[in-house]
Amino acid sequence: xxxxxxxxxxxxxxxxxxxxxxxxxxxxxxxxxxxxxxxxxxxxxxxxxxxxxxxxxxxxxxxxxxxxxxxxxxxxxxxxxxxxxxxxxxxxxxxxxxxxxxxxxxxxxxxxxxxxxxxxxxxxxxxxxxxxxxxxxxxxxxxxxxxxxxxxxxxxxxxxxxxxxxxxxxxxxxxxxxxxxxxxxxxxxxxxxxxxxxxxxxxxxxxxxxxxxxxxxxxxxxxxxxxxxxxxxxxxxxxxxxxxxxxxxxxxxxxxxxxxxxxxxxxxxxxxxxxxxxxxxxxxxxxxxxxxxxxxxxxxxxxxxxxxxxxxxxxxxxxxxxxxxxxxxxxxxxxxxxxxxxxxxxxxxxxxxxxxxxxxxxxxxxxxxxxxxxxxxxxxxxxxxxxxxxxxxxxxxxxxxxxxxxxxxxxxxxxxxxxxxxxxxxxxxxxxxxxxxxxxxxxxxxxxxxxxxxxxxxxxxxxxxxxxxxxxxxxxxxxxxxxxxxxxxxxxxxxxxxxxxxxxxxxxxxxxxxxxxxxxxxxxxxxxxxxxxxxxxxxxxxxxxxxxxxxxxxxxxxxxxxxxxxxxxxxxxxxxxxxxxxxxxxxxxxxxxxxxxxxxxxxxxxxxxxxxxx
Length: 614
Ligand code: AGP
Description:
Elements: E1 3-8, H1 14-24, E2 31-37, E3 43-49, H2 52-61, E4 69-75, E5 90-92, E6 97-105, H3 108-117, H4 127-142, H5 145-153, E7 158-166, E8 173-178, E9 183-186, E10 191-194, E11 206-209, E12 214-218, E13 223-227, E14 236-239, H6 255-261, H7 263-271, E15 275-276, E16 279-280, H8 289-294, E17 297-302, H9 304-321, E18 325-329, H10 330-333, E19 344-350, H11 356-367, E20 371-376, H12 382-385, E21 389-392, H13 405-425, H14 431-462, E22 468-473, H15 477-492, E23 495-500, E24 517-521, H16 529-543, E25 548-554, E26 566-570, H17 578-596
Parallel strand pairs: 17-18, 17-19, 19-20, 20-21, 22-23, 22-24, 24-25, 25-26
Antiparallel strand pairs: 1-4, 1-10, 2-3, 2-4, 5-6, 6-7, 7-8, 8-12, 9-10, 9-11, 11-14, 12-13, 15-16
Helix pairs in contact: 3-4, 4-5, 7-13, 7-14, 9-13, 9-15, 14-17, 15-17
C-alpha cells in the first residue's frame, strides 16, 4: 500500500527520492516524507499530509539540506490518520535514526507497552514509530545498524517492508521484507531500494529480487542480502523489461486514459510468443503437462477486478479444458476449510503480484498440497515467487489505481491458459478458430476505442449528475457487469451495482424507477439465440418500469434497437472473447463521468493501487 524508496550513491538524493516517490505514488497518496543524511552528517527529515505535491511545496518553501543517503515514503494510512505526524519517516535515537515502513506490525501494541515501560514516549499513532523506537534502543546497545536492524525485524510480527538509516553510518541503508515488496536497483557506484522497480527505473533496469524474511544492506558499492539471522543469501537478478517512458503519462490527460488506450498493445503483448503452429502453447508451462492432465479441479483466486477476470476464466477453462473451476475471493478462501489437495490447481491472478489477500490464499493453497500457478503483471513480485508456475501478462506498468489494461490482459491470459490446458488435455476442439479469435482481439479492441470513445464520453457527460447506475450481464457478460460497476464506483464515487441479468427479478428489479440508467451487456445471438433472447427479455422488463437502457451489443444486432435508449457497438467476436471488447466502453464511461465530475481518475479517494494489508 505504501511506496518506499531508498538511495545511496554519489548524487544528492532528494530529487532521486522525490522522483521515485512520484512513480510510486499510485501505491498510496495520503501523506509523504523523506529523510536525508546531509553533507555534515546530520539527518534531516520533512513529511507532509496530503499528496506528494504538498511535500514538494514544503521543500520549495523551506529547503532541506541535501545529502547522498536518503529514504522516502508515500503512505496509505493504516495505524493513525493521514496527518503530518503520522506520515513517515519516523525518527528515533534523538532523531539520528529514520525508519519508513509498508505493512502492518501486528504485535506493535505489545512492543509499544514494552518500550513505554522503559520510558519511551511516542509522537504518532503509528506502528512504524514503535519499530523506529525499538531500532533506536537496539542501536544504542551495539552502535551497529545492521546488527540492531536484525534484532528488530526478528521481534516483529505481521507484514512489513522496513527501511532504516542512521546519521552515524552515512552511505548505508538497510531494508527488510516479510510478505511485503522490496526490490533492489543496481546502479553504477550507486544503489537503490524500492517497493517496485518504478522507484528507480529511470536510473537502472538491473534489479535484484529479495526473498521473504530477508534483509538487504546497500552502500554505493555493495549490496548484501542475508536472512533474518544474518546468513548471506543469493538474491535473484532480473532485468526490468520496460523503460521509464512506459511509466510516464506521455501527453495523456491521465494514466488511466493512457492505459485504456494501451489495451490493444497489452492484449497483443500477452498473446505474443504463445502461439506455435496454430495452437496455444504457453512456454512457461513447459513440462507441466502431467500436472495439467492430472488435476481434477481448478480454483481461481483473486480480488477486485482480478476476481472478475477470474470469473471469465471459469467459463474459458471449463469450456476448453473440461475441468470444474471455482472462483474464490482470495480474502474468503483461507477462512473456511476448502476441499483442496494435490489434484487441485489453484490459479491466482494479480496485477501487482503483491496483494496480501491473494498472497495468503496462495500460501494457504500450497500448505494444503495444491499446485499453484499465478497470472501476474509485475516482474519480481511476491505472488509469482510463491507459486509453482507463473504466466505473466505483459500489459506494461499500470499506474492508475483503477485497473484497465491489466484486466484485459488477465482475461487474455486466462483464454490462453484455457486453450493451452484444452490442448494438453485433448479437450479443446477448434484450435484454429480460437487462435484466429485471439489474434484478432487487439485489432478489435482498437476498433472499439476508435469508434465508441467519443460517443461513450458524450453519454457520460450527459449523465454527470446521475446518482446510481446499474449493470446487467449474462454468461461472460455478468463479470463484465460487475467490472463496469466497480470502475464507476472506484473513480466517480457513484453508487453502481452489477447483476447477473437473470437475478434481477429475484430482488434488484425493485431498484428500477423511471430514469434509472442501466447498462445491459447483450451477448451475440450468433453464439446462443437462447441467452440473447433472455437478455432482450430482461431489457424489456426494466424498460417497462422506466429504466433508461444503454445497451452494449455486437454490430448488426437489431433485436435490441426497439428497447434501447443508447446502443454502444462492439465488433463480432467469439463468445468467450467478447468480454475483452465489452469492458472497454464501460471503462471509458467511468473515466469520462469521473472527469466530468472534476475528480482525479488516477488517484481516487481512500484507495491504493496495491493492497498489501489483509
Ligand atoms: C481495480 O480497479 C482495483 N483497484 C482493485 O480491485 C484491484 O484489481 C485489486 O485490488 C487486485 O489487485 P491486484 O490485481 O494487484 O492483485
